[in-house]
Amino acid sequence: MSKFVLLALAMLLFVSSSREQPPYEFRAAWIATVDNIDWPTKGNYNTDSQRVEFVRMLDSFQSVGINAVIAQVRPAADAFYPSQYEPWSEWLTGRQGQPPIPFYDPLAFMIEEAHRRGMEFHAWCNPYRAVFRVGQSTVAPAHITRIHPEWFLTYGEARYFDPGNKEVQRYVNAVISDIVQRYNVDAIHFDDYFYPYRIAGRDFPDELSYARYSNGLTRDDWRRSNVDSIILMISRTIKRIKPGCKFGISPFGVWRNIDKDAQGSATKAGVTNYEDLYADVLLWLKNGWIDYVAPQLYWEFGHRAAPYEVLLDWWSKHSYGKQCYIGLGFYKAGSNAIWRDKTLLPREILALRNTLNVQGMIFFSAKSILDNLNGWTDSLRNNYFRVATRVPPMPWLDSAANH
Questions:
Q1: 337, 341, 347: which is closest to 297 by C-alpha?
Q2: CATH number of the domain residue 147 falls in
């Protein structure tokens, strides 16, 4: 074999290896606390046991190669930390408002354990959900729904802050400000719950605030402007308090379908961010209000309404210079014939690694990784995350933090 052929093969292997193991890559897991999905285990209200569970989880993640965790610390206007605004979460202690016994600060503990392992810690908050299940969830006497019942609307089985209420916007901003001021979080993270997902035949009952605050806008435009307002407000608050702290959004996977907007994706999704959740994520990216976007692409290649490959390409072209991490549906392993294919998640990882402007991935959720569904955790540890990487730098934040 000629020297030229050997050199070409070596270069090919180097390029292939680089694509498989990039020097910087965001590799994260969502840790859902709502309804005890991931942590702590339902019924485990013992401080020491909770700590042991969390440490084991992070040790497992570290062995896999994960370098960031996104932990839910405010699932329903409650707190996994001592808060002057909101009561202790029922999913931490069994009853809302009940402090942990013996006392500890779970948020401070989680941050310390993540940083001890070189992992970033993103504090995941739900901005508008206030009561998870009306009539079933415990609601403490000091809960904000009891103090300001006029701020809330019931829709389906849950209660929500009214996003159109200006006092609500200031209150939510104050809650986030408190977290950023008191805790060494690397980021504030919101998921896809802005206005709630639609219930067939029922509209979100915000007529009174629309009449009061709409200022001539259509109902849809007014709702979008409400969400825009709070995203901008929180973005400015974070950067004022801690310029190096990130602000990330993990939206539903489809912004708009192309039949509604020429800029939309070639999809036929029944739900979109823009029309249904009133979240104009592209506006936030264009204006630099958020630092990363993590669209939840929980679909397979060739999906009839929302193909993974189509949306991967679309988001890569619409991140506007900010970072893009792909949310992957680890939890769907084995749920049907398509998701029993053990090559599916690895192929999705390889696809995102070979797509420009995509800097990493987030898995939903922690329990799925711990359970090694479809053997994918082993695949990550032994193949796709075999070489350790660091979280990609954000030059615009690094320069701001140093001033």
A1: 347
A2: 3.20.20.80
